[in-house]
Amino acid sequence: MTIWDRTSVQSVVTTDPTQTGKSRAVTGVIVKDQKDELERERKISGNVVVNCTGMWARQLGEAIGVTIPNQAVEHYYLITGDIDGLDPSWPIVEDPSRCIYVRPGGKGLLVEFFETKGVSWEPHNIPSSFAFGELDPVWDRMAPYLESALERLTSKVQKASIKTFFCGPESFTPDNSLIVGSAPYLSTGRAGSSRLPQDNRGWIGIRIAVRGPQST
Questions:
Q1: Angle at 77 between CA 76 and CA 80, to 5 degrees
Q2: Strand pairing partners for 95?
Q3: Structurally, what CATH architecture does the domain formed by 71-172 represent?
Q4: Peptide bond before residue 91 is cis, with ω within 30 degrees of 0
Q5: How far is CA 131 from CA 45, 54, 55, 100, 169, in A?
Q6: Predicted model pTM
Q7: Is the dihedral of CA 158, 163, 165, 171 positive or negative?
Q8: Sign of the CA dihedral 196, 131, 127, 46?
Q9: CB count, 10 Å around CB of 126?
Q10: Which of 64, 136, 182, 189 has the fewest C-beta atoms lying within 10 Å of its C-beta?
C-alpha cells in the first residue's frame, strides 16, 4: 500500500457506462502533488475510493453523481482555562436538553454547542482553500445556549476562565448519524467527531473496500 502525502484530490475518475456497456466503476482519483512549491497533476489508480473529505464530501460525491447528505454549519466551541483537580479521564457528557457536549480538553474542558436551528455555511460550494478557519460569530444568538450550559455545569467549571470562544464550520448529516457504506453513499459522516466511533468507522470502511458491501 502506498500513502500519498501533501496531495489535493481534484476529482474521482470513473468508467463511462455508455462506452463499456457496464455499470460505472471507480478507477482512481486525480490529485495535485505539491513538491518544492510546484503542483503536478497526476492520476492515482484504484478500484476503490473512500470519501473521507469531511465537509467537502458532498461536493466530491456530486462530481460523479453520488448524493451525500452532508452540510457544514456554523458551530460554536468554548474552551476553558485550567481547572484544578480536573481528572483527564473525566467522562464525555452530552446533554441534548441543553444542546451541549462536554469533554476534557488539555487541563480544562471543551464545550460544544448545538443549535436547535442550525445555520448552514457555504451551502453551494465550500472553498477548497479553507482550512481550520474561524467564522464571524453571532453572539446574541448564542447567549441563551451559553447561559443554559453554565447552569448545567458545576460551580468549579462556572468559575473557570474562558480561554477561547469561537465559531467554526462543522459538517453534519440531517440526523447526525454516520454515512458509511458502498456507493451510492461513499464513506463520510460528521467531520472530526470526537464522540463518534472513529476507529470502528475506519475499520468498517476498510472492510467494505476489501470484502464488499455485504461484509458489514
A1: 150
A2: 100
A3: 2-Layer Sandwich (3.30)
A4: no
A5: 27, 11, 11, 24, 10
A6: 0.72
A7: negative
A8: negative
A9: 20
A10: 136
Place of cell 436538553: 97
* Domain chopping of the chain, boundaries: 71-172
Q: One digit per residue, pLDDT tens: the chain, 216 residues?
A: 566 666 677 888 877 777 777 766 777 888 876 655 556 677 878 777 777 788 888 888 887 778 888 899 999 999 999 998 888 888 888 898 999 989 998 889 999 998 988 899 999 988 878 877 899 989 899 999 989 988 888 777 778 888 988 999 998 888 877 777 666 533 443 433 444 445 566 666 667 666 665 555
Query: Cell triple for residue 60?
Result: 466530491
